[in-house]
Amino acid sequence: MIERQIAIGHRMGLHARAAAKLVQLTRRYKSEILLSRTDLNSGGGNSSEADARSILAILLLAAGHGSTVAVRATGADEAEAVDCICEYLKG
């Protein structure tokens, strides 16, 4: 398992078009890929986690510009998947 945190660099955050592109990217990889909002955890509340292959789950994260997201992948191509997704999320 590999996990890396990144701030959302897209000007409008993970809106519908950006989320759809993210889903397309994740389909290139065999690994299980999850996103979670790490900036919500500081208050002791529930963490918000999403399957990166689900556009609805990504949109429900409500990750705006500057939100901190953890990208976690588990599987044969986990390192490549995390690198690619983090590069995309940087904007």
Nutshell version of this structure?
With 91 residues, the protein is an alpha+beta fold. 32% of the residues lie in helices and 25% in strands. The protein has a four-stranded antiparallel β-sheet.
Structure notes:
This protein has 91 residues and is of the alpha+beta class. The chain has a single domain, classed as HPr-like (Histidine-containing Protein, Chain: A), CATH 3.30.1340. The chain is 32% helix and 25% strand. It has a 4-stranded antiparallel sheet. The radius of gyration is 12 Å and the shape is globular. The termini are far apart.
Index terms:
91 residues; alpha+beta; Histidine-containing Protein, Chain: A; 4-stranded antiparallel β-sheet; 3 helices; 4 strands
